[in-house]
Task: structure prediction
Amino acid sequence: MLAMNFRGPRQIRLDRNKPEPEIKHPYDAIVRVTRSLICGSDLHLYHGRVPDTRVGMTFGHEFTGVVEAVGSGVQKLKVGDHVLVPFNVACGTCPHCKQELYGNCNESNPEATAVGGFFGYAHTGGGYDGGQAEYVRVPYADVSPTKIPEGMDLENAVLLTDVVPTGYQAAEQGGIQKGDTVVVFGAGPVGLMAARFAWFFGATRVIVIDHVDYRLEFARKFAFAEAYNFREMKDPVVFLKKATDYFGADVCIDAVGCDGTGNALQSITGKGLLLQAGDATALHWAINSVKKGGIVSIIGVYGPPWNLAPIGSLMNKGITVRANQASVKRLLPKLIDHIMSGRINPKEIITHRLPLEEVPDAYRMFSSKLDHIVKPLLIPPRAHAA
Amino acid sequence: MQTVLEDRIGEFQDRKIANRNQRNRTKDIPGWGMDADPENDPTYPMKHWNGADHERLSYEKAPQQPLDIEVLHSVERPGITRVFGTSSPPSGLSGAVRRYAYQFSEATATHWMTLILADRINAIEGKLSDLTHGILPNPWIERGWRAEWKYNRPAFIQKTATTALLITAGFMLLNRKNKRT
Result:
């Protein structure tokens, strides 16, 4: 089958002869991919910043597909069902899953206890091949995969596998109250969703900070946010303090993670020397820009083992940090309703639709922010097969 | 070899100790539990607290996926999970380095930095494997240079020219040194 094949940092090959996946467990399903997205967090893998990313792996944790085969223990899904597959691999019965922390499953990732099981996200994420391929093995098929509601646009369905719930949870974690001012760092797909959903929780002012002008313009239109370029600021923290009556924002959301930029020390130690897990500039700014007693929501991905962050300010300002991988299954009913009711049309963020065969170009375009790209969608050749 | 505390500590004792304390000790601890408030969980509503955390040894588990490949597991867990990915089993020199890395916990830089080292070795192994199988890497496609040429041509030309210049200067410098010696 066709599949994306990782060959080392910044090198991707289209593998034309990857063996098709097989049922390995009674709870498995095999899914023929119909749509697949590249996530901003895939770029951390592409850049070689996530440990235990092995050559030959197929990335991709945002995909929809048609069930082609099921294991002997699968009861809810049947062959022919068209499903959206949340990026979390979750057993549904461990203590974390039973408390709806599906991003923290205890029975899906042998390689790391600090991370749940995710499709196509290195062996640090459990070693599962992902959805940037024609077929995928989907474990625990009765737990997370969800039949696409009738009438839902396929592009909205695939965005429900990660970016929509992740953006929603970023806002939810912020504990936003009516009247709050919310600052979102990062105008990538997740930041855009977080900014848009901040309004759903009652924010009355939403500010987006980034350094890419076309994305800031996108944030103004899609997320109804004030949007500012930090390259035009001497010190973004002072800017945000001034913008919030020298009080600080009620809630700051870090939607950047380890691929940040804007601080030489962070960039050199994080990206150049790998002395920390990437560049934590956004987190640094978030902690310093939030009000005393405020909340910092971290949804941007950071790798192990550590990052430079102002812990002293956290303590002295009485800040609450809330962070997690999105628990997609928990949020799906609410988000399906928001989409089907027309309150949000997430597919507006998809700017590029490419055949799977062009996956190396898609990664490079997304990584280098070429052609005003916001979110690339991949369509496998067998997406329309009977 | 000196024994360390983690070798002596009993496994799976936490709930036993907690339950024993609850039975025998808490009644003698003034004020125990009187301010407990499940709604004061800062993770709410991300976590729907139902006490399952305290059933950590007795939860329903899926059947074990047959172990037909080598799967490394964190030393912070007792074994592999009931289900696991089978993407790329450890192999070659990078595999040996990975096996070493997995002897250390996720709290150590040794674990993660050794894995990064293994990843870099693995990338070289991948290139050697390509060559032995007659596959020539195609950076124009695989590194996305085609996309750079299409959408970012001036910067791409500038970057390529600078890189070529630096490599040439490096070679000339090395040649000069070699001639002197």
